[in-house]
Design brief:
Length: 403
């Protein structure tokens, strides 16, 4: 079992700053691609299917690599593994700066690999070093992650129009933030490697019903998020909104989500468990999708509701990895399981949404899919919001403790 490590106050402050800057790198290289995709496709002469891979490959990397991260973390230590992830991410961003289609795809795979490791390792470190402040720290890094992601999507086109190198610079410029993260993370690499263990604590909790509830919550909120950031502007445009206004509406959604992320820790402290906040956030998402289905002209209201529900849902999904875990090793296993299945579902979401639109020549059937996803998220929130996943491999490792 991984135990909590005591650090001096200055060391804890440096660790927090390092975690926040690492989190700032975990979405920007993905959300900055969407606004530039038409330019990338035209410049590199890509087919629509090939261009779509630029957004899908990172999610597939998340799904493929997440299950192995806990074991690598146990072998090398989470600090060293996260350092490797930052180097891989930096190499990926640099590779995407090369003006060629193979470099774009290779760099995107490296970017996805680096982010996949960071996604799983951050909850391990939060649970191990800040077990009494899981909600606050999770909200902080989720807010930073979401805020920088929103900025990345907003500045992508202006940078591509003003900077030398066009969209190559807009994508490659994020290497500066990755380098800053590496520098801030260097002091953490002096941490002693973890002691040898039997490895039981690093198994994924496949036999835990509670772990599956957390996985379903993570997957359904991720499905909705990646469909929304991919398709919502087009849905708005087909309902009479200009392209520029649709972009600002998506920015409004993300800005509201960031503010909601900041407010979520208060709800976590107030509530006895997380069932009520999880249910409310899921209901807000459902309300936003219903507005999109029944009153698509109310685009501002739809964006605000989706931002309120989406921001809280993301923080809760990330916090569940630590809050539902008995120790840091279990947090890593739960995080790996939930993100592996969750991002596999999210990778399929935009494609299925587009196929439904093509098959029905309208948006009602695809938006109904989002309503069903939000309803499912509301249902599983009742299970995911309380209890403890026991470490996999223990004699009672398949049971879940309710409290």
């Amino acid at each position: 079992m991984t135990t909590t490590r005591s650090k001096p106050r200055s060391g804890q402050a440096l660790l927090v700053w390092g975690l926040l800057v690492v989190a700032a790198n975990l979405r920007a290289s993905i959300t900055g691609v969407g606004p530039l995709l038409d330019r990338v496709q035209a410049d590199l002469d890509l087919t629509p299917a090939a261009a779509g891979l630029v957004n899908t490959l990172p999610l597939l990397a998340f799904a493929a690599l997440s299950p192995v991260v806990p074991r690598l973390s146990a072998r090398w230590g989470p600090e060293r593994l996260l350092g490797v992830a930052l180097v891989v991410l930096t190499l990926g961003i640099a590779t995407r700066w090369i003006p060629a289609a193979p470099a774009l795809f290779a760099g995107t795979v490296l970017v996805g690999a680096g982010i996949a490791i960071g996604n799983v390792v951050l909850p391990i470190l939060v649970k191990r070093d800040f077990p009494t402040r899981v909600g606050l720290l999770t909200s902080a890094y989720a807010t930073v992650m979401g805020g920088v992601a929103a900025v990345a999507s907003g500045v992508a086109v202006p940078i591509s129009e003003l900077a030398p190198g066009g969209w190559h610079t807009a994508l490659g410029g994020w290497i500066l933030l990755a380098l800053v993260a590496i520098v801030l993370w260097l002091p953490q690499l002096r941490t002693a490697p973890p002691p040898a263990s039997s490895g039981n604590g690093h198994r994924l909790p496949w036999g835990s019903p509670l772990a599956w509830a957390v996985t379903a919550f993570m997957g359904l909120q991720s499905l909705g998020f990646y469909i929304v950031v991919t398709w919502l502007p087009q849905v708005f445009q087909d309902n009479g909104v200009t392209a520029a206004t649709a972009g600002w509406l998506l920015f409004l959604l993300q800005a509201v989500a960031v503010l909601t992320s900041l407010a979520t820790p208060a709800a976590l402290r107030w509530a006895r468990d997380q069932r009520a906040p999880a249910a409310v956030s899921s209901a807000l998402l459902l309300a936003g999708y219903l507005v999109l289905l029944l009153a698509p002209d109310q685009a501002v209201l739809c964006s605000i509701l989706l931002g309120l529900g989406g921001g809280a849902s993301l923080v809760l999904a990330l916090a569940f990895f630590s809050l539902r875990a008995q120790d840091a090793a279990t947090a890593g296993g739960l995080s790996a399981m939930a993100q592996s299945i969750g991002y596999l579902l999210a990778a399929a979401g935009p494609a299925v949404f587009g196929l439904l639109h093509t098959a029905t020549a309208g948006w009602q059937a695809p938006v109904l899919l989002l309503c069903l996803a939000a309803t499912g998220q509301l249902i599983v929130s009742m299970a995911a919001g309380r209890g403890t996943v026991r470490p996999a491999g223990n004699a009672c490792g398949t049971g879940d403790e309710q409290r």
